[in-house]
Design brief:
Blueprint: E1 6-12, H1 18-31, E2 34-37, E3 40-44, H2 50-62, E4 66-72, H3 77-114, H4 119-142, H5 148-177
Antiparallel strand pairs: 1-3, 1-4, 2-3
C-alpha cells in the first residue's frame, strides 16, 4: 500500500450565531471532509481540496472561530482507519448517486409508458440530467482514492444520457407528427 498523507482539520466556532458553524460544516462536507469527532475532520492531503480548505478557513474566521490544519502520518492501523473512514464516506455518496441515476431512468421509462411526449417534460428531464452530471463531477473531484465506483458511476451517467436521447427523439417525433 502506498504511503498516504492526511490532513486533520481542527475547528472551533462559537455556537451562536449558529449560521457560522453550519456554514463551516457545509463547506467541509461539500469538499468531502469526514468528521472524526466534534471539531475534528479528516481529508487526504491532496491539491484537489486546497480551494475548499481556504473557503472553510475563511468561514471559520468570519465566525470568530479557530482553525488548525495538521499534517498527519498515522502509524500502524491508524492509516487504515483514516482511509476506511474517507472511503466509506465516498462509497455512501456513490451509492446515493447510483440510486438517483436509477430513479432518472425509471422516470424516463414512466414518461414513455404514459406517452407524455411534451417539450416541457423533456426540458424538466434535461434539467434532471444536468443535475446528475454536476453531482457526478463534484463526487469525482473529491474521489482522490480513485474508487471503482467512480467508473461505474460514469457508466450510469452514460446510460442516463442514452435514455434521455431516446426520449427526446420520441418527443420530437410526436410533436412534429402533429
Amino acid at each position: 500500500m502506498i504511503e498516504e498523507r492526511w490532513l486533520l482539520i481542527l475547528v472551533q466556532v462559537p455556537s451562536q450565531p449558529s449560521r457560522h458553524r453550519v456554514a463551516v460544516w457545509r463547506e467541509l462536507r461539500r469538499m468531502g471532509a469526514v468528521p472524526l469527532s466534534p471539531g475534528t475532520w479528516l481529508l487526504p492531503a491532496h491539491p484537489a481540496f486546497s480551494e475548499g480548505l481556504k473557503k472553510a478557513e475563511a468561514l471559520v474566521a468570519k465566525g470568530d472561530g479557530s482553525w488548525t490544519l495538521v499534517d498527519a502520518s498515522p502509524r500502524e492501523s491508524g492509516a487504515a482507519t483514516f482511509r476506511s473512514a474517507f472511503e466509506a464516506a465516498r462509497l455512501e455518496e456513490w451509492a446515493e448517486f447510483a440510486a438517483d441515476c436509477g430513479k432518472f431512468e425509471q422516470e424516463i421509462a414512466k414518461e414513455i409508458s404514459l406517452g407524455k411526449f411534451t417539450f416541457a417534460e423533456l426540458e424538466e428531464e434535461e434539467q434532471s440530467l444536468e443535475r446528475l452530471r454536476r453531482w457526478y463531477r463534484e463526487l469525482k473531484s473529491r474521489d482522490v482514492l480513485h474508487l471503482a465506483q467512480a467508473g461505474e458511476a460514469a457508466s450510469l451517467v452514460a446510460r442516463c444520457v442514452e435514455a434521455l436521447e431516446g426520449y427526446a427523439a420520441m418527443v420530437y417525433d410526436a410533436t412534429l407528427a402533429e
